[in-house]
Amino acid sequence: MKRIAFILITLLFTTGKMFAQNTTADKVLGIWLNEEKDAKVEIYKTGNKYYGKIIWGKNIFDAEGKPTRTDIKNPDPKLKSRPLINLVILTNFTYDDGEWEGGKIYDPKSGKTYSCVMKFKGEILQIKGYIGITLFGRTTVWTRG
After folding, report:
1. Which of 9, 15, 105, 122 has its CA 20 to 30 A from that of 68?
2. Which of 67, 26, 30 is nearest to 145 (CA)?
């Protein structure tokens, strides 16, 4: 009887910890306004990875509401004509110990892709894009949008 009680208590604590980590990891989900306030990005989850796509942008739509801006800064000529709306700019992030890491961020304003790490400071999402090591990066802050 003691053995069954021990197993049940162990299961309760381990599954509780898993659910708590999932809740913390999913805190990043939702719509975010970039620092310049000229784009909104929806962060979503597929499997255990996190992604983000542009869902709104200043001057992305024409007077009739049709998306007109394309990825003209992309170094790949085949991709220059793709619309910025719904463009995935955050890819392959995983959550570990308070940070979303291992992902990439694409900057459509420059056409460059950077390694990236994301973490919260209060309710603000800090996004650091870098090349090589994080020491040589730049941090931008996003707010809920």
Report:
1. 105
2. 30
